[in-house]
UniProtKB/TrEMBL annotation:
Originating species: Compsopogon caeruleus
UniProt cross-references to InterPro entries, sorted A to Z: BRCT_dom (IPR001357), BRCT_dom_sf (IPR036420), DNA_ligase (IPR001679), DNAligase_adenylation (IPR013839), DNAligase_N (IPR013840), NA-bd_OB-fold (IPR012340), NAD_DNA_ligase_OB (IPR004150), RuvA_2-like (IPR010994)
PANTHER family (alphabetical): CHROMOSOME TRANSMISSION FIDELITY FACTOR 18, DNA LIGASE
Name of the protein in question: DNA ligase (NAD(+))
Biased composition range(s): Polar residues: 34-57
Family matches, as PROSITE patterns: BRCT
Positions of transmembrane segments: none
EC annotation from Swiss-Prot or TrEMBL: 6.5.1.2
Key words, A-Z: DNA damage, DNA repair, DNA replication, Ligase, Metal-binding, NAD, Zinc
Pfam families tied to this protein: BRCT, DNA_ligase_aden, HHH_5, OB_DNA_ligase
Top-level class of the enzyme under EC nomenclature: ligase
Domain annotation BRCT: ranges: 623-704
One of the protein's GO biological processes: DNA repair
């Protein structure tokens, strides 16, 4: 049989915390040594770190190797395409290097995708747990070591014999433990789903409470292991890093980690699909929630050769199960106002359980969707939780009677100002409140955004705190943050004491002169401009900082560079920096001492995601000697031959070309798979611009 099924014994114990006795005898050190059920002090993990003073914020720690996300797939065809990409890449790699000379075939490991919280565990050369770090943004995460040591987490051995090593896995709460947890919490304090409960529990401020949350850990990756030195006869003296994912899973089980309940080594695509169908049919009987299957290249050598993008490994994908559905009553359609004034309809639902989560709201996207579905309050609706994440209404199952479609608001639900449609009459999907400075919802959204982690990264300033500050008249614009005093917070804002007031003011003050310019630009909230585009803008703004912001419009270089970002982006930037309110906001921030750190012309030190900046930026210096020198290329849709869009952008750049976002008369050719229509493709045909297939592009890049 081509597929080698693995199903280690994995049974939750009845009546007490821990793995079943049969597994427990085989791995006597499987339970957490700090569990109440483990009383032998000699087997406990060192608790030296438990004496550290706690703070309300977990320290950020850089990952030794980035904890990348997985690219999601939702169809069998996507899995088949992934297998073909891997096989093709492996053949190409063998032609170029010798690392795969001894491997004649490629195999895959299919394993469960646990719906939990990713965690990296570092073990020292004595085999003791040294540090526990959450995934975070992939580059750095939060140090939750103290909580892990105190948390009585099932599936963690007291020590290992293969340190130093890094073990990665998922923290979760089993179905049985989640039911017990909610039963103890009571209806009013119950958790909505196991994943949220696990995530919140792992970052509780009191480590002693973590043990009551019934957490478990399932290991799925082993890295950087080497022989352990020492006199202990139980320690391995010949262990080396695993050569395959299958070997890694086996070693993890031998070391006492909770074993993966179901996994398989697959040699053909049909083996993977067989495993997927098997798990689909038995999913309800698993002891914990899963939201898909992870398919990885088994051989570590092939993994290294395939590499990763800045976001995903090329050697693994996550097959996400089809959406779950539920039927419930539409209680109301409410309207939210974004920081840019966009009015977004949201469905308020009678609570319904879908895919292990309690759903009370669903996205309606825009007003055209309301009209298409013919929605009105009281309708019985079908709700889909797509990819186990985002709920949306897909159909009306029972109507309340005569249809009088839910009325589109004529005025802003917050400030009562007149609303205007974006675009022309035929494409009216976006309704906007134009009262930018006078709308409380927009002001609140802008202030929250300014302080957010993606922008100025000011700790302890969330939506609730901003609401309190606005209500007390202390903050109405970003510069007001820097005018706050500790004594004012204590005397005027409910809930603030000496310690919390000092913490907030310190956090705000520390951002005054330490944030890079691109973060400052993100914080301003230019419509349609994210982190990557802001990093581009920062290089242009820095050159003319002495004329920022009012004098930029007089600089030809500024105008030229912004226009190269595409017509829509350029229009948004020019309009934004021409707005008197924006200029006043910037002047006020500079007046209170906010001093962004300007980027060095020789360094990327202020850019958080260098890979994102280098590969994702849309403006590039041209290679004057490359075979694509001077060519402008537009990509429409997915390419699908093993390279991501960013990979292609970088390759084209290396060959002297430029990838742009907009089709114009200056475009040399458009790349499209031709299997679906797009605005870019239609525009190319209108202008008579050549359209090439991904296969033709691949040949062009390969022969260049």
């Amino acid at each position: 049989m081509a597929m080698e099924m693995r199903h280690p014994e994995w049974v939750m114990a009845s009546g007490k915390r821990g793995i079943s006795e049969s597994v427990g005898h085989a791995h006597s050190h499987l339970r957490s040594p700090l569990s109440p059920t483990q009383s032998n002090p000699s087997s406990q993990i060192s608790s030296a770190t438990l004496t550290r003073s706690r703070t309300t914020k977990f320290p950020q720690v850089q990952h030794s190797v980035p904890m990348l996300s997985l690219m999601n797939t939702y169809s069998i065809e996507d899995v088949e395409a992934f297998v073909k990409r891997v096989e093709k890449a492996a053949v190409s790699a063998r032609d170029a290097v010798t690392e795969l000379e001894n491997s004649s075939t490629i195999s895959f490991v299919a394993e469960l995708k646990v719906d939990g919280v990713a965690l990296a565990l570092k073990w020292n050369d004595a085999g003791e747990l040294q540090q526990a770090i959450t995934r975070g943004n992939g580059s750095e995460g939060e140090d939750v070591t103290e909580n892990v040591l105190a948390g009585a987490i099932q599936g963690l051995p007291s020590s290992i014999t293969i340190g130093p090593a890094e073990v990665r896995g998922e923290v979760f709460i089993s179905k049985r433990d989640f039911a017990l947890l909610n039963q103890a919490a009571g209806e009013l304090n119950s958790f909505s789903n196991p994943r949220n409960a696990a995530a919140g529990s792992l970052k509780l401020l009191d480590p002693n409470l973590v043990a009551s949350r019934r957490l478990s850990f399932l290991a799925y990756d082993l890295m950087m292991a080497r022989p352990v030195t020492g006199d202990s006869p139980q320690r391995s003296s010949s262990f080396d890093s695993p050569s395959s994912q299958a070997e890694a899973l086996s070693i993890l089980r031998e070391q006492g980690f909770l074993p993966m309940p179901e996994w398989a080594v697959c040699h053909f695509c049909s083996d993977i699909l067989e495993f997927v169908q098997k798990i689909k049919s038995s999913r309800a009987n698993l002891p914990f929630e899963i939201d898909g299957i992870v398919v990885k290249v088994n051989e570590r050598g092939t993994q290294r050769l395939m590499g990763s993008t800045s976001k995903f490994p090329r050697w693994a994908v996550a097959f996400k199960f089809a959406a779950d559905f539920g039927t419930t009553r539409l209680s109301d359609i409410i309207f939210q106002v974004s920081r840019n004034g966009i009015i977004t309809p949201v469905a308020s639902l009678e609570p319904v359980a879908i895919g292990g989560a309690r759903i009370t709201r669903a996205t309606l996207h825009n007003f055209a969707e309301i009209e298409r579905l013919g929605l009105q309050s009281g309708d019985l609706v079908v709700v889909e939780r797509s990819g186990d994440v985002i709920p949306k209404i897909i159909a009306v199952e029972g109507s309340v009677g005569d249809k009088t479609h839910s009325k589109i608001p004529n005025s802003c639900p917050v400030c009562n100002s007149t609303l205007e449609w974006d675009g022309n009459a035929s494409g009216r999907t976006t309704l906007r409140c134009m009262n930018r400075l006078g709308c409380a919802a927009q002001a609140h959204g802008r202030l929250v955004h300014f302080a957010s982690k993606a922008a100025m990264d000011i700790s302890h300033v969330g939506p609730a705190v901003v609401s309190k500050l606005i209500d007390r008249g202390l903050v109405s614009e970003p510069a007001d943050f820097y005018r706050l005093k500790e004594e004012t917070l204590i005397s005027h804002v409910e809930g603030f004491k000496e310690k919390s007031a000092r913490r907030l003011v310190t956090s705000i003050t520390s951002s005054r002169g330490t944030r890079p310019l691109w973060r400052f630009l993100v914080a301003l909230g230019i419509p349609g401009i994210g982190q990557v585009a802001s990093q581009q803008l920062a290089t242009f703004v820095a050159k003319h900082w002495e004329r920022f912001p009012t004098g930029l419009g007089e600089e030809p270089e500024w105008i030229e560079n912004v226009q190269r970002m595409g017509p829509k982006t350029a229009r948004a930037v020019f309009d934004f920096f021409s707005d008197r309110g924006v200029i006043q906001t910037i002047d006020s921030l500079l007046a209170v001492g906010v001093a962004p750190v300007l980027p060095s012309s020789h360094s990327n030190e202020n850019i958080t995601d260098v890979a994102e900046w280098n590969e994702g930026s849309r403006i590039y210096p041209e290679n004057q000697s490359g075979s694509l020198r001077g060519l402008r290329i537009v990509i429409s849709g997915e390419i699908g031959f093993g390279l991501t869009r960013k990979d292609i952008v970088v390759k084209v750049k290396e060959l002297g070309g430029r990838v742009t976002d907009t089709v114009s008369k200056r475009t040399d050719f458009v790349v499209s798979n031709l299997d679906r229509d797009s605005a870019k493709l239609r525009r190319a045909r209108e202008l008579g611009i050549r359209v090439v297939t991904p296969e033709e592009l691949q040949k062009l890049l390969g022969s260049a």
